[in-house]
Amino acid sequence: MPALPQRRLLVRFVMAGLIALGLSLPLIPVPPLTTVANAQVLRERRSIIDLLFGRTPKYEPTPSYVRVKKKKHRPVSERPSDTAAAPAEEPAVTKTPDAKKVLVIGDFMATALADGLTMATAEDADLQIEKGSDGSSGLVRTDHLDWPKTLKQQIDSMHPALIVIMLGSNDRQQMTVGGVKQKFRTEAWNNEYERRVIQLIDVAKSNKIPFIWTGLPSFQQPSLSADAASLNTLYREKVEAAGGVFIDIWDGFADEEGKFIATGSDINGQPVRLRGSDGLSLTKAGKRKMAFYLERDLRRLTGTDEIANLIRLDSTNLPADKPASTTPTIANITTVPPMSLADPELDGTKELLDSNLQPKTSGTTPRDLLIEKGETETAPEGRVDDFRWKAAVKPAG
After folding, report:
1. Is this structure's pTM higher than 0.70?
2. What is the mean pLDDT of the chain?
3. Are 164 and 214 spatial neighbours (Cβ–Cβ below 8 Å)?
4. Most confident residue range from 80-84, 261-265, 371-375
5. What are phi and psi of 21, to 5 degrees?
6. Tell me, what's the pLDDT at 79?
């Protein structure tokens, strides 16, 4: 127990020293907590050093939460992009009641041709394109569709002014002839196919309707292109022999060597995609280009060609021309009556520059002076080639 008083004395001594040391140090002002806006005092555990010397509390700014306003979505009808009026499409031209009908028949290529002709004549009120094609048809499979019989029915119901035919894309297959199946391009096959082509043409001729047969284009498969070229030769021969019009469109869908191309120039000369990825079908630009080859003959045969309908001038529409006088009024002739080069019959003869109609005169013409004497006629006074020197006129007085 003798150590206890010593310990108490030691503690008292230390406490007295600490109190004396604390009184001798200046007081450290502590900033009021209320002066710091939006701050938060960090409550930390204090040590004895903090009690003696003091410690400035740490302040951490309170995170400011920005209130994000939710964007109000306008109804679709109130959005600016929707309120602006979209450009209205131009209405299609209304066809006249007596518009000439053009009947297009054939397979899937004829369907594409009909679409192209519809685009080509969209602004023509006097032409109406009628699509009478069947994509799976041909001249071989008469069990699917008999085209001579079908064409006769379509003519009776539509009364077209022109028939456009495009066939052959589905005809590369065997054909039944007299109950026997014949392979493609054999002699029996060729003879029967020619007969069916002529039979279809005779339907149009018997109804006295002009017709256009459109040839096949090239295809991606070389063998198919070769067969199409052979069929085109057959079509041309039979159509022209019957007085029809055959349109060859091969060059528009082939390169310089006559081979298939998928991309080429459109009707405006711009490079576009003409054929589909299958190597058979046509794009919109390809359909329009195919129709371009037919436009001129189509309008000519239907009588809607504007150039052909212009008034043709003949001798009855020209102004009256006074006959030239055969009696010269002056000794030297410097002018002659004009002669119409467009219609020599106005001069009374069918020969151009007929010497028998030249006026008989006794005067000397500028031609006679130039050829016989080498002289030229003196220019009239005041003309630009009058180089005569004029004497100055002295004033009177």
Report:
1. no
2. 78
3. yes
4. 261-265
5. -65, -35
6. 44
Tokens of 351: 């020969």
Contact 121, 129 (CB under 8 A): yes
Here the tokens at position 33 are 């907590």
349 in the Ramachandran plot: left (φ > 0), alpha (ψ -120 to 50) or beta?
beta
Task: Look up residue 370 and give its DSSP letter.
Answer: I
| First CA to last CA distance, the chain | 174
Least confident of 46-50, 81-85, 172-176: 81-85
| pLDDT of 121 higher than 60 | yes
**Other Cβ atoms within 10 Å of 272 Cβ, number:** 16
Cα(116)–Cα(159) distance, integer angstroms = 21
Other Cβ atoms within 10 Å of 307 Cβ, number: 8
| Alpha-helix residue ranges (DSSP H) falling in the chain | 3-24, 48-53, 80-83, 108-120, 147-158, 187-206, 222-241, 284-302, 366-368
Q: What are the residues whose beta carbons fall under 8 Å from the beta carbon of 366, sequence distance 6 or more? A: 332, 333, 334, 376, 377
Measured distance CA(77)–CA(83) in Å, rounded: 7
Range from 104-108, 282-286, 330-334, 381-385 carrying the lowest mean pLDDT: 330-334
Are the beta carbons of 160 and 102 closer than 8 angstroms?
A: yes
Say if residues 304 and 100 touch (Cβ distance below 8 Å).
yes
**pLDDT of 374-392, one tens digit each?**
777 777 787 887 777 766 6
Q: Distance (Å, rounded) from C-alpha 201 to C-alpha 196? A: 9
Q: How many helices (H) and strands (E) does the chain have?
A: 9, 11
Domains identified in the chain and CATH numbers: 100-302 (3.40.50.1110)
Q: DSSP state, 324?
A: P
Length of the chain: 397
DSSP assignments along 243-303, one per residue: T-EEE--GGGGB-TTS-B-SEEE-TTS-EEE-B-TTSSSB-HHHHHHHHHHHHHHHHHHHT
Of residues 365 and 340, the one with the higher pLDDT is 365
What is residue 61's predicted lDDT score, i.e. its pLDDT?
54
